[in-house]
């Protein structure tokens, strides 16, 4: 059990930027680390089909990928981070039901002053765990702007606007009606030893 979390300024800024860039939709991902220090984050695309402004959804494959990364890099899997665009930095009932060991909630109800808090869940009750933002000194990270990492991780989950989502879905349906092939983009094979995580400290 971890009683105190630390996150580097770079990782914190990455999470805040992801949250702000996706407003008013919820955004999030997974975190892993060692000795309470968050050393890896994996930003994810919000998979909810209808209510991305009030719900953050992920898949079982996302969780498996996060666990695999942590095992590969000798990190402990900590759990989920996500934003509450209009809410407080506190897990909702739906958050608790995900079964994650820890939750990291970023409240953006005041975008000029985000609130970031960590919780462990005990018998369905959130218990706040102190969370400190620390300097980057002494930590090395893989940048999300590295072309290979961006191609493998960020671009496949590029967030579309609601209008772009609707237009894309409409085009896919039209193509299926016309029996066109290759409507869905192929994901590049992951034969690299680079991390699936977008940043690694």
Characterise this structure.
The protein is α/β, with parallel strands linked by helices and 201 residues long. It has a single domain (5-159, 196-200), classed as Cytidine Deaminase, domain 2, CATH 3.40.140. Helices cover 27% and strands 26% of the residues. The chain is built from 5 helices and 9 strands. It has helices at residues 9-22, 60-72, 93-96, 147-154, 162-177, and strands at 5-8, 28-34, 37-44, 76-84, 102-107, 115-122, 125-129, 131-134, 199-200. Strands 1, 2, 3, 4, 5, 6, 7, 8 and 9 form a 9-stranded mixed beta sheet that branches. The longest helix has 16 residues, at 162-177. The two termini are 21 Å apart. Mean pLDDT is 77; it is low at 142-146, 148-158 and 181-198.
CATH-defined superfamily: Cytidine Deaminase, domain 2
- Segments where pLDDT lies below 50 for 5+ residues? 142-146, 148-158, 181-198
Secondary-structure arrangement, i.e. CATH architecture = 3-Layer(aba) Sandwich
Give the biggest beta sheet. 9 strands, mixed
Q: State the CATH class.
A: Alpha Beta
Q: What share of residues is helical? A: 25-40%
* Helix run count: 5
**Average pLDDT rating:** 77
Q: Let me know the number of strands.
A: 9
What is the SS-derived class?
Answer: alpha/beta
Gyration radius, in Å: 17 Å
What fraction of residues sit in β-strands?
A: 25-35%
Distance between the termini: 21 Å
What would you call the shape? Answer: globular
CATH fold descriptor? Cytidine Deaminase, domain 2
Question: How would you spell out the order of helices and strands?
Answer: EHEEHEHEEEEHHE
């Amino acid at each position: 059990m971890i009683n105190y979390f630390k996150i580097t300024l770079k990782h914190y800024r990455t999470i805040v930027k992801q949250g702000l860039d996706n407003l008013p939709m919820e955004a999030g991902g997974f975190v892993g680390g060692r000795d309470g220090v968050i050393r890896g984050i994996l930003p994810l695309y919000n998979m909810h089909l209808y209510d991305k402004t009030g719900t953050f959804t992920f898949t079982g494959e996302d969780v498996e990928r996060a666990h695999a990364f942590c095992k590969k890099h000798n990190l402990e899997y900590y759990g989920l981070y996500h934003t509450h665009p209009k809410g407080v930095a506190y897990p909702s009932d739906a958050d608790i039901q995900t079964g994650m060991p820890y939750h990291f909630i970023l409240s953006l109800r005041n975008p000029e002053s985000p609130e970031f808090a960590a919780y462990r869940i005990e018998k369905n009750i959130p218990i706040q765990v102190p969370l400190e933002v620390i300097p980057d000194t002494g930590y090395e990270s893989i940048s999300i702007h590295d072309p290979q990492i961006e191609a493998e991780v960020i671009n496949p989950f590029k967030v579309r606007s609601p209008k772009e989502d609707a237009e894309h879905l409409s085009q896919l349906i039209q193509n299926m009606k016309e029996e066109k092939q290759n409507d869905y983009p192929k994901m590049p094979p992951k034969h690299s030893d680079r991390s699936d995580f977008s940043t690694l400290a």
